[in-house]
Design goal:
Radius of gyration: 24 Å
Distance between the termini: 65 Å
Number of domains: 3
Strand order of the largest sheet: 2-1-3-4-5-11
Mean pLDDT: 81
């Protein structure tokens, strides 16, 4: 087996002292641009990676996963990574600590073993963070996933599933309806839904609302007035959707087919006739936790495809 490159080897190749190399790779002390460039280049060429799991064990401390909660975070991610995720990590002896972007540098400096980024962080602020070399960073459900190793739901597969179902029910014009807190977060969903609709030969329209019953009703009026006969709604609870339809003398499925992105057994039980697109919070949290546990104990960052489930009920079925 090829010997693992050491910090001393990195320093030798970079032509700097071992302490300078350590400062660069730990991210705890800012070094000159030239020193930083040489050390990082040497570490990359040698395949050097700090062993956070081993260092944690040698220090005799509990391993810690830090979670950066960005400004725009889908509720689906929070629900999937909260209780189930924390519980599973705790059972594996791993502590989970959350921080906003204003406090995440302190969290990183405290010596975490992995960083999870939820949502889309401010690009400028994120680029200024001092990251220890080799710290695993995983982004989940981000608008731009190219910055990190990441995991997320396949928006194309979700769109295909929704469009395929609605097409089978005779839909010819699909409407996308989004609530105020979800506009930016769910933008990739809207793009995928429009692409899937066009590919299936269907018309596509979109409308947003401010979350109030009156605004939701106006969004329905706009969509239905434009010929929409099927709506996929995200970013609002299910009950206001159907209250708004009733307020304008419309109902599902007789006037419009409706599928709502909804999470949780309680909400679905309260609206048993509503077709729902669930991102399966329990399963999602378990998958993410298992990946993180594997990484902090020596595994590699991998790309995850998280599960979803389309449950068809009366609101999107025409007899």
């Amino acid at each position: 087996m090829k010997p693992r490159p050491t910090l001393a080897k990195v320093a030798l190749v970079a032509g700097v002292s071992k302490s300078s190399a350590a400062n660069v790779l730990s991210g705890r002390r800012k070094m000159s641009e030239e020193t930083t460039r040489r050390v990082l280049a040497a570490a990359k060429s040698l395949g050097y990676r700090s062993d956070t799991a081993a260092s944690s064990l040698s220090r005799g401390r509990t391993q810690v996963i830090g979670v950066l909660v960005a400004e725009f975070v889908p509720g689906l991610v929070v629900s999937g990574i909260s209780a189930v995720f924390v519980k599973r990590c705790s059972e594996a002896g791993i502590v989970v600590t959350f921080a906003g972007q204003d406090r995440v540098q302190s969290l990183i400096d405290s010596g975490i073993d992995m960083l999870i980024v939820l949502g889309a962080p401010d690009a400028d602020g994120y680029s200024e963070l001092r990251m220890p070399f080799g710290l695993p960073v995983v982004g989940l459900e981000m608008a731009d996933s190219g910055q990190f190793g990441w995991g997320g739901h396949d928006t194309g597969e979700i769109a295909d599933a929704v469009v395929s179902h609605l097409t089978e029910q005779g839909a010819r014009h699909i409407g996308w309806m989004v609530g105020p807190a979800a506009r930016e977060t769910f933008k990739p969903w809207a793009l995928s839904l429009e692409e899937a609709a066009r590919a299936a030969g269907l018309a596509f329209s979109a409308a947003s609302h401010d979350g109030s019953g009156k605004s939701i009703a106006q969004a329905f009026k706009k969509l239905l007035g434009g010929g929409v006969d099927a709506v996929f709604s995200v970013g609002v609870d299910t009950s206001p959707i159907f209250d708004a339809l009733a307020s304008i003398g419309k109902s599902a499925p007789s006037d419009v087919l409706v599928v709502v992105q909804a999470e949780g057994i309680i909400e679905q039980a309260m609206t048993p006739k509503v077709s729902t697109l669930s991102l399966m919070a329990h399963e999602t949290g378990t998958i993410i936790a298992d990946m993180c546990i594997a990484i902090v104990t020596g595994g590699e960052v991998a790309t995850l495809e998280l599960p979803f489930e389309l449950t068809v009920r009366e609101s999107s079925v025409r007899s």
